[in-house]
Amino acid sequence: MSDRSTVTILGRWLLRVVVLVLALHFVFGLVLANRVSPPAALAFLIALALALPIARQLPFLGRPGVRGACLILLLLAANVWLSSGDREDLQRQAMAFVGATILTGQLDAAPIANGVVLVDADGRISRVGDSSVQVPAGHELLDLTGKYLVPGLINAHGHLMLNGGVPGEKAALPAILSTPWLANAAFAFLQTYPGKRVVLEMMERHVQLALRSGVTTLRGLGDPLFLDVELRDRIAAGRLLGPRLLVAGPILAITGGHAHQIGQVFDGADGARRAVRLNLSRQVDLIKIASTGGVSDSRRLGEAGELQMTPEELAAIVDEAHRKNVLVTAHAESAQGVLEALEAGVDNVEHGAELSARALALFRNNPKSLRGYTTLHPTLSVVARARELPEAAEGNRILQIMTINGNEIRRRMIRGFQQAHEGGVKIGVGTDAGIVDHGSVWMEMTFFEEFGGISRARAIHLATLGTAESIGVAEITGSIEAGKYADLVVLDRDPLEDLAAFSAPSLVVARGYRVPAE
Predict the structure, then answer these.
(1) Alpha-carbon gap, residue 149 to 163, rounded angstroms
(2) Least buried of 319, 359, 377, 447, by fewest C-beta within 10 Å?
(3) What is the mean pLDDT of residues 468-478?
(4) Nearest residue to 164 (alpha-carbon basis) of 173, 156, 155
């Protein structure tokens, strides 16, 4: 066989491989797409027709290479159109919400009966008042007579790639966590192109579930591969309707520490600084660390809450982040773990544990924190009810360990929340969404009431403006005030009478965009 014949055969095989890859990529994208543009579908169908043997009889396709080039161009166009067409057409317009009882989110502010909220075409609130406010021309009028208008909820603690269960139910930890080979296979798939695409699609669905439930701001506290950054940027650019996202990228963990499987692993103070710098170079909004062990990957009794990061590592992380004016939040589930995180100057504590007098004092006045104080996100949704070991897992030692550890952490977290509430610590709402359902953030308020005796009015404040202050976005959201974004939830019932009114919002508005019903 001549060299020319060999090259021709190799070229044909290469062409077939390219065509096959492009076709499979289109089909894969088609499965994940929320919407398909007609040009994408048409281009793919024409490509399929040209791939049929009968197409070779067409005169203009008989020349060598022409048919292959046409196939490649059509499939490339189909993939591009599929990707560009899978976007939402987001548009804002000036709106006037009239007739509702307005709960502004501000602590101790009286409800505004028969209120009016004006929203401009940029999605900002221009005026708030009673029925004496005149509605300017050009505003779409939304009559909310008999309804209640409240600020959008804020969830300070979510994991965007995880789906979660129902807050407050007796939860069984997923079997994948107790099956190392299965967990390793899942993490390996995550590293691949199809894996990233699948996970990103799942993350989109989860944040939109949160949005439809009334969550207009959500913090992602630990998602691998910086996919949360990509999702945040898509929402911010108007390519996808979703809640405002503040994301941490991969959680910072020590070798073998909590969440090291999907985190940014380091050791030592120098490694800690390097890890912070790497995350910041990928444009994260905050730094999340696992300073103690956790329940979900514990393999020994008592491992959850064990000290993992050293004081030197904690200090290096906080110093490096604060030099860039970036908040640090710490997963901490033991009294000493919380204290060491506070002494290093972290800005938020996730979960928590029993609090000493020194810890309470540092929460209220923390000179090493970025703002002079530290806040607590008690994530009661994950511990509101004790875990039970399912009958099918009674012989699984790892699940037994996680269940026992989980119930001990539950006791610590509830006690820490009660001490913080009694001790005047600033508290915010974070549910650990992904471990629990993204759409049930409102239930955290009911657990504040159940375990801390917090009034419904204060619980609503904490879930809105209080959490906005905790995570550093109070200048733009968290309350219904002129100048802030229109992050709004419309309820059919009075939430001051029953917080379950949040379970079925009749309308959600995020940054001035009306959220369509599912």
Answers:
(1) 28
(2) 319
(3) 98
(4) 173
Would you say 248 and 259 are in contact if contact means Cβ atoms under 8 Å apart? no
For 36, counting Cβ atoms within 10 Å of its Cβ (0-12 exposed, 13-18 middle, 19+ buried), the class is middle
Same domain, 410 and 464: yes
- List Cα–Cα distances, 517 to 211, 412, 509, in angstroms: 10, 39, 11
Per-residue pLDDT of 109-125, as tens digits, reads 999 999 999 999 999 99
Residues 107 and 167 in one domain: no
- List the CATH number of the domain containing 361: 3.20.20.140
**What pLDDT does residue 43 have?**
73
Q: Are 314 and 346 in contact (CB under 8 A)?
A: yes
Question: Does 442 lie in the same domain as 339?
Answer: yes
Q: Say how far apart CA 413 and CA 380 lie, in whole Å.
A: 8
Report the helix count and the strand count for the chain, using DSSP H and E. Answer: 14, 17
365 and 488 co-located in one domain: no
Residue 512: give the domain boundaries: 90-150+480-518
Weakest mean pLDDT among 81-90, 328-337, 415-424: 81-90
Q: Quick one: average pLDDT of 297-308?
A: 91
| DSSP SS3 for 354 | coil
Nearest to 50 by CA among 8, 80, 13, 15: 15
- Rounded to whole angstroms, the Cα distance separating 362 from 364 reads 5
User: pLDDT confidence of 390, banded at 50, 70, 90?
Assistant: low
Same domain? 394 vs 321 = yes
- Is 90 exceeded by the pLDDT of residue 439? yes
Mean pLDDT, rounded, of the chain = 88
Decide if 220 contacts 248 (C-beta within 8 A): yes
Let me know whether 229 and 158 are in one domain: yes
* Residue 297: Cβ-neighbour burial (10 angstroms; 0-12, 13-18, 19+): buried
CATH of the domain at 493: 2.30.40.10
492 and 434 within one domain? no
- From 85, 107, 123, the end of a domain falls on 85
485 with 473, same domain: the answer is no
Q: What is the pLDDT of residues 258-277, one digit of tens each?
A: 998 889 999 999 999 999 99
Average of per-residue pLDDT across 165-174: 57
The structural domain count of the chain equals: 3
- Cα–Cα distance measured from residue 126 to residue 116, given in angstroms and rounded to the nearest whole number: 11
